[in-house]
Design a protein that fits this description.
about 375 residues; 3 domains; alpha/beta; eight-stranded mixed β-sheet; globular; Rossmann fold; 15 helices
Length: about 375
């Protein structure tokens, strides 16, 4: 099948796009966006909608798993779409809610067993190859939301899932009174060692990472944060309604919540299906600009703004794409809402909307 598909692409496109990175070809080859979107609609139309009881009979339950209905709308029916697999034998099923379109892993991991996904090697992962371009990505995302992140003086920031402290370093540089929380004790230790070795801006404060959940740390639980950041965290949360209710309570009046996560409307998902890069061992739920607003509205947020993601190398100006192809890529991302990552900024209240509405296109919830 793969060989036949490649032969078809060669017949249609020749060699013109051979030097374009694989992750960008779907965005630049003429007509491919429309083809992938049509394939997606056909997949949805052809996939049976079954009851949760039927689903239980067809899909076995793992030791650390539980069956779920849709977390966003409560729908119990399922459309079984994908079966991602990976190294060391991990495998799971991804379903679609036929009512609201939400994609999620089912069976999903029970919250009390979530640590099984991060045992032994996660902090090494966070400081290994994964970390090489992280700070570039942080800067690009902050830039996409304009002045919200430009100046941190006099503002408190919480980085939820701070890992080894790579973002806390940037937040400290920009003057934020920054704190982080993480459930990996060795990552927190590495983060604090990293931050202790850095100079503190004049008049600023040293950022600090804490081990545990926000409710376990009195100075975090007290709230009053102007900014909360979730860098590639949302897909890992097994009880998002509970977590986002907590985030809303931690925000000060006028506060904002920044989210970076894989995009369930990605053209790469529509092209590669179960082999999509967003389906990793540790990811549980997959959001888009169509489903995230439901989560925000149900947990007390009043508005949301989105920023298209064209790819880190494109936005940083280091891509090999010719200018014409870059323009085509950006246009196809905008037309399909199909970037591989989703960037969103949630506004806690009307005060937050009023403060930033002249800088961002905010959709009321």
């Amino acid at each position: 099948m793969v060989s036949a598909r490649r032969k078809l692409y060669k017949l249609v496109y020749g060699t013109r796009y051979d030097k374009v990175p694989w992750g960008q070809r779907v965005y630049v080859r003429p007509g491919e966006r429309q083809i992938r979107e049509a394939q997606w609609r056909l997949r949805i139309a052809r996939t049976p909608v079954i009851s949760l009881d039927e689903y239980r009979e067809r899909v076995p339950l793992g030791e650390i798993e539980e069956y779920l209905s849709c977390m966003l709308c409560g729908e119990s029916r399922q459309q079984k779409l994908f079966e991602p697999t990976g190294g060391k034998g991990w495998r799971y099923h991804v379903v679609r809610c036929p009512s609201c379109g939400f994609l999620y892993r089912n069976p999903n991991v029970r919250p009390e067993r979530l640590g099984d996904l991060y045992a032994n090697s996660y902090s090494k992962f966070l400081t290994g190859d994964y970390a090489e371009n992280r700070q570039r990505r942080y800067r690009l995302v902050m830039k996409s939301f304009g002045p919200v992140f430009e100046e941190g003086r006099g503002r408190r920031l919480l980085d939820f899932g701070c890992g080894a402290g790579l973002f806390l370093e940037l937040a400290q540089e920009r003057g934020f009174d920054a704190s982080g929380v993480d459930l990996s004790p060795d990552s927190v230790e590495q983060a604090n060692a990293r931050l202790q070795a850095l100079p503190v801006p004049e008049g600023g404060t040293r950022a600090r990472a804490h081990f545990g959940a926000p409710a376990d740390i009195p100075e975090i639980a007290a709230g009053g944060f102007d900014v909360i950041t979730l860098w590639s965290v949302l897909a890992h949360l097994p009880r998002p309604l509970d977590d986002f209710t907590g985030f809303r309570e931690l925000l000060a009046p006028g506060g904002v919540l920044m989210i970076l996560t894989v995009n369930a409307r990605s053209l790469l998902l529509k092209a590669y299906g179960s082999k999509w890069s967003g389906f990793t061992k540790n990811h549980l739920m997959f959001y888009s600009s169509q489903t995230l607003p439901t989560l925000l509205r149900k947990t007390g947020f009043k508005g949301v703004a989105f920023a298209s993601h064209y790819g880190d190398t494109v936005e940083a100006g280091t891509t090999r794409l010719a200018p014409e192809l870059r323009r085509r890529l950006e246009a196809n991302v905008r037309r399909s809402d199909g970037g591989n990552m989703m960037r969103a900024l949630a506004f806690a209240d009307e005060e937050a909307i009023a403060r930033w509405r002249d800088h961002l296109k905010i959709h009321r919830l």
